[in-house]
Amino acid sequence: MTAESSSPSLAAQLARLEEIVRRLESDELDLDEALALFEQGVACLREARARLAEAQLTVRAVLEGADGSLRLSQLDG
Fold first, then answer.
1. What is the pLDDT of residue 27?
2. Rounded distance, CA 58 to CA 23, Å?
3. Rg (CA), the chain
4. Do 67 and 40 touch, CB atoms closer than 8 A?
């Protein structure tokens, strides 16, 4: 099993980010808890951005023609 397959999906990461934001917006956290959640949020955001960048490169490679030009096509059929 690779490290990628053991990490949460992008959807799970975004859901976790939403949860973190909701908790940070509440007045129920002390400073230490808020800082720990903030750190978790930043880590989730970095990983999500990296996944999106990888996906963008993959899509670009699939769409790129042999001459380096991009082929544009409708994705919905």
1. 84
2. 34
3. 18
4. no
Which residue has 């993959």 as its token pair? 58
For the stretch 5-26, pLDDT in tens is 567 788 888 999 999 999 999 9
CB 38 within 8 A of CB 25: no
The string of DSSP codes covering the chain is --HHHHSPPHHHHHHHHHHHHHHHHSS---HHHHHHHHHHHHHHHHHHHHHHHHHHHHHHHHHB-TTSPBPP--TT-
Global pTM? 0.67
The predicted-structure confidence for 53-73, as pLDDT tens digits, reads as follows 988 888 887 777 767 776 666
